[in-house]
Design goal:
Helix content: 40-55%
Radius of gyration: 34 Å
Number of helices: 18
């Protein structure tokens, strides 16, 4: 009985669906692995501390359940301590911000890798990568929450959706956005039409990017200033901090655990310092608030080393009022980074932002600074129990508006003044890295003979009067055309380390003895210090196809002097765009005619200068 073998061919649609399913499955696994790595690293640390403890309160199962609770707390979840001296369960809402960095970074990394198609594995859509990584991570979150229900730190079920799921989804969305190249895509279809049209313009995107960068700088300055305030206060109260540290634990393992907890709360202390400098301060229980004006009420604070930096009770003095320098520095930083984009040093006055536009972008940056401060303040404080400790730390809905007010009131006038100062500074010579002027010097000056100016990426013409004076202030970039200017008596246009014009042989002559055997440049080829690989890729206005054409004509018309040079490299600079430079001078035209005559005399094609 014969056996019939049926050969079938898999269709392209089946293969595509299978590859898509494999990519989604891989993304789900990536999300679960990211969550497992964060949970596992924290479990190892807690297990080491538990093993080294001489008198542990619970067994290994209790330590692992507490680890799961702390890991959920790092995502913003609220915890509840059922075992308290009063018998009333006490909530724990202060999130160690340093612990939050790990889960956010792992989720971001997993989503970014899932959205990027790699070698040997199929890619998936951005929406699919986001949903798959988020689902895989939240599966581990649900398992950890179920496991921690019987521990000493039990998660609050109401906080698992918000903010835990929101934090995971936000980090995954940021990872997918990074994999896509951080684009600023169109707004959703349900948004207003006028806003969609504004977002589609490149000008709007440039202003939005400038505002976001300035806002990020403002938040960073606020946090740095807050950390500085805490460091100074701890230095003044070092003895009290040492007593609190030694009094919490008597053995080295307990002190190591206290040190780890204090390190995880250092970013929280920086946020507290920023809130103190902004004015709203922070609450130390329901009956005490610390502000630069003073510490009112009876604070109910636990014994902890970082809390030794608290100000003394009573009205504040000038050291407390000096904390107001932190928001002032943040506002000035926002204004400075906004003006750097509003009035660049390499742009003419006609292409700078107007006063109204500069003020609007600064206001938008101030709003972003306030929003970022509020988002960081929300998890930095929270309840540590019931009764007096039900309010502990800064209040986000007061700190965020305070940051907005400081940066807007001080930042907008400062930005306008900085813009006016930058525009009225003669030549803006205070900055050393001023790019080269793109407009040629006045006609008739010696520095302008044969000089060609090129257009940098994003840089525009900035006219200067007096050719040699302006050329001395500008930063020089060597090009093959600078050699001809050197021959005409412009030493400022020679390449650093290139021989002087007087030491270069005349075009078409043999090199002098002792010169290393290097022949002089042919007519029309260039002048002193000419190098064939000086075509640097700095001009985006040039066409790629003109590189080989110009290089080939230069080799053919060199009279055999450049026959040994290889073809133009991949990173070579292409030919100049004709309309991006002025016409050659009479001397350059004569040099080009001599090069063409030399090429025709040797039987080769004429050279193109």
């Amino acid at each position: 009985m014969g056996r019939v073998i049926r050969l079938t061919q898999r269709g392209p649609q089946v293969t595509t669906d299978r590859n898509r399913a494999l990519a989604l499955s891989s993304a789900v696994v990536r999300g679960a692995v990211a969550a497992g790595l964060g949970l596992g690293a924290l479990a190892v640390l807690v297990t080491v501390v538990w093993i080294s403890s001489p008198h542990p309160d619970s067994g290994p199962d209790g330590a692992l359940r507490a680890t799961a609770g702390v890991w959920l707390l790092a995502h913003g979840a609220g915890l509840v301590r059922p075992d308290t001296p009063s018998g009333v369960p006490a909530p724990v809402g202060v999130v160690p911000l340093l612990l939050m960095v790990g889960p956010v970074w792992l989720t971001h990394r997993a989503a970014r890798d899932a959205a990027e198609p790699g070698e040997g594995r199929p890619g998936t859509s951005r929406a699919g990568a986001f949903c798959a990584v988020t689902a895989g991570y939240l599966l581990v979150v649900a398992g950890a929450a179920a496991y921690a229900r019987g521990g000493a730190l039990r998660p609050d079920p109401g906080t698992l959706m918000f903010p835990v799921a929101l934090v995971v989804a936000g980090a995954a969305a940021a990872g997918v956005w990074t994999a896509a190249g951080r684009p600023l895509g169109p707004l959703p279809s349900w948004s207003p039409l006028a806003l969609q049209e504004a977002a589609a313009r490149a000008l709007f995107r440039d202003r939005a990017e400038a505002a976001c960068r300035s806002a990020a700088v403002g938040v960073a300055v606020l946090l740095g200033g807050g950390a500085l305030l805490v460091a100074v206060a701890l230095g003044r109260n070092a003895a009290a901090a040492q007593d609190a540290f030694l009094g919490l634990a008597g053995d080295w393992s307990g002190r190591f655990a206290v040190l780890l907890l204090a390190a995880a709360l250092v970013p929280n202390a920086a946020v507290w310092g920023a809130a103190y400098g902004l004015g709203p301060g922070f609450a130390l229980g329901t009956e005490a608030t610390a502000t630069p004006l003073g510490l009112d009420g009876a604070p109910a604070v636990p014994r902890f080393p970082l809390l030794a930096a608290l100000p003394d009770p009573g009205p504040g003095s000038w050291p407390n009022w000096a904390a107001g320098a932190v928001p002032v520095a943040a506002a000035l930083a926002v204004a400075w980074f906004t003006v750097r984009r509003a009035a660049p040093v390499d742009a003419p006055r006609a292409r700078t932002w107007g006063p109204g536009e500069t003020a609007r972008v600064t206001l938008l940056a101030a709003f972003g600074c306030g929003l970022g401060t509020a988002l960081l303040t929300a998890p930095a404080g929270g309840p540590l129990g019931t009764g007096e400790l039900s309010v502990f730390g800064p209040v986000w809905w007061l700190t965020g508006p305070a940051a907005l007010a400081w940066t807007a009131v001080i930042g907008v006038p400062a930005a306008l003044l900085l813009r006016l100062w930058r525009l009225r500074t003669p030549g803006w010579a205070w900055r050393r890295d001023v790019t080269e002027a793109q407009v040629p010097p006045a006609a008739g000056t010696e520095a302008g003979a044969g000089a060609r100016y090129r257009r940098d990426a994003g840089a525009f013409a900035n006219a200067r009067e007096g050719g040699e004076e302006g050329a001395g202030r500008a930063r020089r970039r060597w090009t093959p055309w600078r050699g001809r200017s050197a021959e005409k008596g412009d030493p400022g246009r020679t390449r650093p380390g290139a021989p002087e014009a007087s030491s270069v042989p005349a075009p078409g002559t043999a090199p002098e003895e002792g010169s290393g055997g290097r022949p002089g440049p042919a007519a029309g080829q260039g002048g002193a210090g000419f190098e064939p690989y000086d075509f640097l890729p700095t001009d985006p206005w040039h066409e790629k196809d003109s590189r080989e054409a110009r290089w080939a004509s230069l080799r053919q018309g060199s009279g055999g002097l450049m026959a040994d040079f290889p073809a133009v490299p991949a990173a070579a600079r292409p030919a100049d765009r004709p309309e991006a430079r002025p016409a050659d001078s009479a001397a350059d035209s004569a040099a080009g005619a001599a090069a063409r005559s030399a090429g025709e005399a040797d039987g080769g094609p004429a050279a193109t200068p």
